[in-house]
Design a protein that fits this description.
- The structure holds two protein chains of two kinds.
- Helices cover 31% and strands 23% of the residues of chain A.
- Chain A is α+β, with helices and mostly antiparallel strands.
- The longest helix of chain A is centred in the first third of the chain and has 31 residues.
- Chain A is elongated, with a radius of gyration of 28 Å.
- The model of chain A has no long low-confidence stretch (mean pLDDT 95).
- By secondary structure, chain B is mainly alpha-helical.
- Chain B has nine helices and seven strands.
- Chain B is globular and about 60 Å long.
- The two termini of chain B are 46 Å apart.
- Classes of the chains: A alpha+beta, B mainly alpha.
- The interface between A and B is large, with 57 and 56 residues.
- Strand 1 of chain A pairs antiparallel with strand 3 of chain B, so a sheet runs across the interface.
Chain lengths: 262, 272
């Protein structure tokens, strides 16, 4: 054994040998207790897992998980309210794939299309054609559109801020906490909390890559934002409905998070 | 007042001195190798990690784009349908997300307590590689492959273990940070830029998960190889040591050296 190795061994052993020792009979006693504790732990973990799965579903997932999604959203919105996603130069934009057709499968006469704007008591506030949205201040936004499936796309949207649209009705509807959107056929519908809707990057989009939206991408008017998943960016808006209660949401009814916030 | 055989007086009130004294030199004793906190954190982490990987793969399924290969040639696409089918990962994106974003907190909290514990108790010194680690780790591998006869000296862990346990902590840190970058890319901006953006963070998150899975596989193999005594030590905390009479050491000066430090200890079974 070389001297070098001996000194290395000495050094390493010193690190270990300050740990206490116990006699074997004491060890046996403690071992029994530890393995018993292990068995209880495994049984407890299994019982907890079963308990979780057996809880009543809320929107397709066990209630404790739904509650946690809500707590997460509360945490994040308190941590950093109103932050904005990065925007990119137009040259970074690439064509975006078509992912969802729910609510836009019917034929549509774009010339006859209108949006119903409803107040929180279901009263009709307005019925608007496309010119009303063209008349709002226009902006361009090149953002990363993120699909909840995992893909994302740098996309060049053009249109009006929802907040500019909302200004027309702010006095009438007061401090409503929510706003819902629906396709004309009512098959697809999303709910938004007002702070998210009023975010400067929440857009009522009319254009994609400087061209009017095509049917697959939600002509004539759709939602766009980098701050929620694409499931919230409803295509072919038919109804805008202010609400005091959280509006129904197509995907939240199908196990997804209601906020779907990024 | 009692007098022990060496003539040194022992005070009556020294209650922490075990009555029978140290066991005889050749009798096995059990030495604490894994403190209670480490055992709990280790075993709590195990199911949490697997809930995270399982729910994470349900999320990945919805956009399963990663593969090993060169250019357009794919050697292995993550994952074959048979794997998704076997583990029930298909069409469960929403449930995957719900589990991932609930259990993720527990995984992070457990890991944070572990790191704080390592730092506070200086247990990290058993785990962090030192300057001999690279050479010794090579020797460990050669020894494990039966190419080299003698294993390099080791403390609580050998050098290969130190490197892999540190690497797994680094991977866990990266998996958590990249996970947060995908989870809240706007709220936590510019965190995604650390990984070259949102998709970069997703890629890193995936590969770190594969890294953790590979660690797990090797870890389990090594635990099996090391035997029952080693596995038991992660449950009970103790490993049985056989004490042997130290070889006669001519260089030792004086007779009052502490017997502890001269004891040759041999752990029964390697540690993993």
């Amino acid at each position: 054994m070389s001297e070098q190795r001996a000194s290395r061994e000495e050094q390493l052993r010193a690190d270990v040998e300050d740990a206490p020792t116990i006699p074997l009979d004491e060890f046996k006693r403690r071992s029994r207790r530890s393995f018993l504790m292990g068995a209880v732990g495994i049984a407890g973990a299994y019982a907890g897992w079963r308990w979780l799965q057996d809880q009543p579903d809320v929107g397709g997932i066990p209630k404790p998980l739904r509650d946690q999604l809500e707590r997460n959203e509360t945490l994040w919105s308190n941590l950093s309210e109103g932050r904005s996603a990065p925007e990119f130069s137009v040259s970074k934009a690439t064509p975006i794939q078509v992912n969802g057709r729910i609510g836009i499968r019917n034929e549509i006469d774009l010339a006859a299309w209108t949006v119903r704007v409803e107040g929180p008591d279901g009263e009709l506030l307005d019925e608007l054609d496309i010119s009303a949205f063209d008349a709002l201040p226009q902006r361009d936004m090149v953002i990363e559109h993120k699909c909840i499936e995992g893909w994302s796309n740098i996309t060049h949207w053009g249109g009006a801020r929802f907040s500019d649209f909302h200004a027309r009705y702010a006095d009438q509807v007061g401090d409503v906490p929510y706003v819902g959107f629906e396709t004309p056929d009512g098959l697809y519908y999303v709910g938004w909390d007002m702070p998210s809707a009023m975010h400067p990057q929440t857009m009522l989009a009319l254009r994609l890559d400087d061209e009017p939206l095509d049917l697959d991408h939600g002509a004539p008017l759709r939602l766009a934002t980098p701050n929620k998943y694409g499931i919230k960016c409803l295509k072919r808006i038919g109804v805008v409905r202010y609400a005091r209660e959280r509006p129904a949401d197509y995907w939240a009814e199908r196990s997804y998070d209601w906020y779907a916030g990024l | 007042m009692s007098i022990d055989t060496t003539g040194a007086p022992i005070a009556d009130d020294a209650e922490d001195i075990p009555a029978p004294g140290e066991p005889p030199a050749d009798e096995p004793v059990a030495r604490l190798v894994h403190p209670r906190a480490i055992r709990w954190l280790h075993w709590i982490n195990f199911p949490l990690l697997f809930v995270m990987i399982w729910s994470g793969l349900r999320i990945y399924w919805a956009e399963d784009v990663y593969a090993l290969g060169v250019g357009s040639w794919q050697w292995f696409a993550f994952f074959p349908d048979s794997i998704y089918e076997t583990f029930g990962l298909e069409r469960r994106l929403a449930r995957g997300m719900a589990f991932h974003f609930a259990f993720g907190w527990l995984f992070v909290i457990n890991g944070a307590i572990y790191v704080i514990y390592l730092l506070a108790t200086r247990e990290w010194r058993h785990i962090l590689p030192d300057r001999h680690a690279a050479k010794e780790a090579k020797d460990v591998v050669l020894h494990d492959l039966h190419i080299k006869k003698q294993a390099p000296p080791q403390g609580k862990y050998n050098a290969a273990q130190r490197i892999s346990y540190t690497a797994v902590l680094v991977m866990a840190l990266i998996v958590v940070v990249s996970g947060f970058a995908i989870y809240k890319p706007t709220q936590l901006y510019p965190l995604p830029l650390l990984f070259g953006g949102y998709q970069g963070a997703r890629l890193v998150h995936f590969w770190m998960t594969i890294g953790l899975l590979l660690f797990f596989l090797v870890h389990v193999l090594q635990v099996i190889r090391s035997g029952w005594g080693n596995f038991r030590s992660m449950v009970t905390g103790y490993q049985i040591e056989r004490r042997t009479t130290p070889p006669v050491d001519d260089t030792a000066t004086g007779t009052d050296s502490v017997p502890e430090s001269d004891t040759n200890t041999a752990a029964i079974g390697d540690s993993a």
